[in-house]
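Hey Z.,

So I finally got round to the NAY thing we talked about over coffee. Here's the setup:
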Amino acid sequence: NTQLRGMFAALITAMKDDQSFCPTRQKEVTKAVLSQGLDGLYVGGSSGESGLLNTKELLDQQGVVAEAAADQGKKLIAHVGAPNLRDSIALAQNAARLGYHGLSALPPHAYPFSDGEIISYYRELSAATNLPMIVYEVPVRTNRPLPLPVLSEILQLKNVAGIKFTSQDLFKFSQLKAVHPDKIFYFGFDEIYLSAGVLGADGGIGSTYNVMGKLYASLNTAINAGDLAEAQRLQEISQQFVSELLEVGVLPGIKAIMQARGIGAGPTRAPLCALSEKASEIAARMANDPRFT
Ligand code: NAY
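And the result:
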């Protein structure tokens, strides 16, 4: 699993102007994001608006991204979490056929499932292919932090290789890591990646990497080299940027920046908020800021 370490952009989904999925723009976006020097892509996740896409669109997207990323030596992780296990398995098997290197899935959260139902979901989904599975802890999306023993049990399932930890609870992160030193630990809050990095995170997966990939690649290099002054400098730049983005909506903001760079990512899909004038204003300022690229 060590080959899955590193910094991954949680790839955004390109839409046509009418908010339908756009394969042509998706190719362009994929190439632009990969040109920044990151280790790979996390495809079809929250940042990819996957909760707003249907399964056919997600299957199409996996193919388009695999094609655009071919021969670039980058790692591809497919997020395959869907409201039901059947669709999740279809997405996982498609990703395996396409040559993806890993899978990941949000815990099922469309109903208040029992811990047992969540564990069974991961057991069956992970067994559906031979790919390494990355569990996803993200209470801001599921409204439910999974208890340490439940996460620990999931990490021991066949093919489960690690966790994408998107929670502020860094003590829990360390406790889990102490019990599972052989698993891969990604951190998912871009604005505080440094904190998890110094606690030994193996990599990061984030939305703002789409437009500041070079900065996060350098941040990871600085942490690995023990250059904390440089790491802090880079993290503070990312924090300024994330603060501004949070005001206009992270995903519309990222898409506006792409637009301002001449990369057609299209709009976000409703009910995500549409691009505001303020987002365009921020985007115009940030698009060519040398600190971000
Ligand atoms: C994904 O697509 O599943 C992600 O990786 C999401 C990562 C993002 N987390 C959430 C909860 O949206 O990049 C972060 C986040 O947008 C960023 O840190 C700003 O808070």
